[in-house]
Design a protein that fits this description.
By secondary structure, this protein is mainly alpha-helical. The chain has helices spanning 2-70, 75-104, 108-111, 125-157, 168-193, 196-199, 222-240, 244-262, 274-282, 292-297, 307-310, 321-324. The chain crosses the membrane at residues 28-49, 76-101, 135-153, 168-188, 209-227, 247-267.
């Protein structure tokens, strides 16, 4: 019997090795094919966008030079408008539209996409007012002075209001680097804030909303707002010595994405907020923005076993994912 067992194990080992190598080859083939398709698609998209950028480039350069002439000698005003007021205006415009749904439940064609059913229907008005006051404080008492103070530092590194606008490809490179830096800095600062030493005194404030809404994207303790909201988004433009146009677009995009992540609705044709919504629900999963570092550190393993993970896709139709991929029925005693 012992000899048979040894023979069986001996025969199984090559089979397992063959299975592993076969899996590796299939994985390599799949990843390689996907990479080639991605490169081809990316080249096609950038070629078309570059044509548009080139065709309109003279127009935007002319508009920028007109602005520089208008604010000649007072470029700092242009910087303040672009780095603070334009992103802030977009933040309140987008989150304001969502607030209408949060407070009234209407229009129904949006409220039906709610992720956590039965929550914030409608939102608590007293809790909302308190949150809005905190958001305004973070924006105008913290973010505004910090960005104003940053201007002379940026001028030493590379004048953000220089005459020549960045090229299309340079902006794409900046955007990729900004995103990477934000992912790394936000993930680790966010995980640090979940340490018991910092959570109770600092980060717990943000987690008062277990079912988040768009406007609370910036609802945080001042220390968290600087360390985890501002720095991850600011370091990229500082390191790259970015043009004001790149900074304005990046800050605006970062705010829109964080509103979507907190909005509480999985809307058609917009990035999925399921990942961060699950973080607010469970607290100890899904710390990052893109999910790359969560995958590497295993901080999304529980999330991957849920229906929320199945729904974590780009919705390309109009049927709510809560209907097409419903939660399993609750067990009754």
């Amino acid at each position: 019997m012992k000899g048979e067992a040894g023979s069986t194990l001996h025969n199984e080992k090559p089979k397992q090795e063959g299975h592993i190598w076969g899996s590796m080859r299939r994985t390599a083939f799949t990843l390689g094919s996907g990479l080639l398709l991605l490169v081809a698609f990316w080249n096609s998209v950038t070629w078309h966008l570059q044509r548009f950028w080139g065709a309109s480039g003279y127009f935007w350069q002319a508009q920028w030079e007109r602005l520089l002439s208008t604010f000649e000698g007072k470029e700092w005003i242009l910087y303040i408008l672009g780095a603070t007021q334009v992103p802030t205006l977009l933040f309140w415009s987008f989150s304001g539209l969502l607030l209408v749904v949060d407070t009234t439940g209407k229009p129904n064609f949006i409220s039906r996409y709610r992720i956590q059913l039965g929550k914030n229907e409608p939102v608590d008005p007293m809790k909302l007012r308190q949150s809005i006051r905190t958001v305004l404080f973070n924006q105008y008492v913290i973010s505004f002075p910090v960005l104003v103070f940053l201007y002379p530092i940026l001028k030493l590194w590379g004048d953000p209001c220089r005459r020549e606008l960045p090229t299309f490809h340079w902006f794409l490179l900046e955007l990729a680097l900004f995103t990477l830096i934000e992912e790394v800095m936000f993930y680790y600062s966010h995980r640090l804030l979940h340490h018991p030493t910092f959570y109770k005194k600092i980060h717990k404030k943000h987690h008062e909303w277990t079912a988040p809404i768009g406007v609370i994207a910036l609802y945080a303790h001042p220390i968290e707002h600087v360390a985890s909201n501002m720095l991850p988004a600011m370091v990229g433009p500082i390191v790259m010595g970015s043009h004001l146009s790149s900074m304005t677009m990046w800050f605006s995009l970062a705010l829109i994405i964080t509103i979507i992540s907190h909005c509480g609705y999985h809307l058609p044709f917009l990035p999925s907020p399921e990942f961060h919504d699950y973080h607010h629900l469970k607290f100890n999963q899904c710390y990052g923005v893109l999910g790359v570092l969560d995958h590497l550190h295993g901080t999304d393993t529980v999330f991957k076993q849920t229906k929320s993970y199945e729904r974590h896709i780009l919705l390309l139709g109009f049927t709510p994912l809560s209907e097409s991929i419903p939660d399993p029925p609750k067990k009754t005693e």
